[in-house]
Amino acid sequence: MLGGGFRRRTGPEERGLRVRARLRAGQRSGSRFGAGADAGTPGGAQRAAHHRQRWWRQRGRRGHAAHPQPALAQFPAGHVPLIKRLSRWLRPRAPTIPDEPWQAACEALPWAASLDRQRRERLRTLAARFLHEKTITPLGDLELGDHERILLAALCCLPLLEFGEGGLRGWSQLLVYPDAFRVRRSHVDAAGVLHEWDDELAGEAWDHGPLILSWADVCADLAEPDAGFCVAVHEMAHKLDVLDGELDGTPPLPSGWYRQWARDFQRAYDAFCAEVDAGREMAIDPYAAEAPEEFFAVCTEYHFSAPEVLEEAMPEVAAHLARFYGPSPMRAG
């Protein structure tokens, strides 16, 4: 699993105080942004080992000659244009969303309605790709029509406006519950005692697995687009975070920017944790103090839904996110 999902308190008046699954004592200690990096290189030893496992290894045993490889048949040069033409013919057409349903989705999606024309078309292309590549599965008695599916695709693709469709790699399914869903958690503390509890979640993301959302919470986010919450954006931030092989609050970035990001996020995170631990009232959801990856995901929510709050509380973090995601649609509007 990537990150802890939203956990809500009971009662409609508590939605603005959504609390997520809490880390147990001692789990935050030593948490670092860019924890997987070594020598300033994103991904570090673990990602290097991962890539090493993908390299082809020579199979010849010591002392034995490798088997000779048969010569490969080659097409005459005149066949190359034919191959190119066949490849263009076989390549699937780029998916599209027709004008009328896309316009209806934009009217229902406050963030899309606030985008300029160029970025809205970019979102349309990304959402079409999402619908083409991902299976959206409603669970329980939930039914999702074309309009709802386009809404979900567009909402999930908001964080990809600058990153591009590469942010869709590594998973294939969006599961949608009618409302918050319950999962069983367990944790062994430092004394070896097993703790088990149930969480009621509004969203969850799994490494190389599905993204899971509560439709009721998606609708609540649509109704209050400037409240600082957006569960779909939060979970997509986890998907972006893990693309470089590490869930550490640092998505794939050029090396120079990566170092700046890790430094500035770490400083802001440490200061934020100190304020939360001191019991002070926070403008940003205190859940951001749970771990670097949750800090990144929660700040992503504020970038898209309450950018002024984020800019005032953490100007350096807000600047990085504006560079990574592009200007907030809520600010642009």
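the 2nd protein, sequnce then structure:
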Amino acid sequence: MNSVFRNHRIDYDPDVVISGTGIYHPDETISNEELVNTFNIYAADFNLRNKEKIDSGNLLPIKKQTTAFIEKSSGIKSRYVRDKKNILDPKIMWPYLPERADEKLSLQAEAGVLASRNAMLSANKSNKDINAVILACSHKQRDFPAISIEIQNELNITGFSYDMGISCSSAIFGIQAAYSSIKSGMANSILLVSPEIKSGQFSHRDPGTNFIFGEATAALIIEKRSSCIKESAFQIQDIQLYTEYSNNIRNNRGAYNRCDSEKLFHDDKVFYQNGKKVFKEIASLVPNLIMSQLKNLDIEPHEIKRYWLHQANSSLNRIIIERLIGKNYNSDIAPMVLDKFGNVSSAGAILAFHLFNDDVEIGDNCILSAFGAGYSAGSILLKKIGL
């Protein structure tokens, strides 16, 4: 990769802050032990049903999965899900998420509303204070009407809304969009929400990916500093965005799939990746992006109080931090929620921000960063300020 980043400073308006956060996740969880037990029953049945082909060398057997492999390769121990029963049924291994009538609140909007109400409560905002809703996540339940407008309607917010997505980086790019709308005068206060319902977006029979994802929703309130009524907030100091085309992470599900019905349910219609290449290239891209950003701002990486990183892989995050500040660091500087939540795509970095910001003091600089398919990556410098 020949990544070239912005090499000059942009003066960001100090009057835009993140004033509130909120999260939501389903109640049910699946442990690694439960996941492995289901997969190994499925694998044994597959191998038995295909014994002749396997013995003749015409088909490879499915190997058993282990909890040790999952935890070592990812750092994940459990994940929140919908419909645990069907996911753990070796004959199904897929969530049942029944379609709702058009007049009923959609599943994704429902999750978004729950997290949004928590974020509004955190920011001391009512629906009358919000001027816009941005839905920023890795996938949408439908093309239109926009999920964001459905959330806007449910919360009785007056203004405008739109959906956007750039995989796991969606929330970071969404914050830039919200910042620009506030700076231009289009809105004073914006609700950004990232509902990630991942259990229907990957194959539960693929031992390389079946353990990666969980489900969670995160929401933020981004507003003008002058309208913030809290004692403190996180001021947006700088935003660095970057994209570079790669096929190493893909999902080919889309509007034209039905035009080739023979391939409608092929494995490429869910998440798939070249994991080793992704790891290697992201481990270089992200620290270089952050270092370039901080250099433009005359800030040393070790001067950052906290790095809230995308929660994709514990080893990857460790390498990113080591390349930024060296191997001798306190784990608190880059907190992980991956072990409990799994990879929740665009919601992951916001989850870490939400759960681990209480000890950040006035004047501290922090980095909020996410990265993923595209490739796409973004880094936001935040400063906690008193109001």
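The CA atoms of residues 4 and 289 lie 9 Å apart. The chain has eleven helices and 13 strands.
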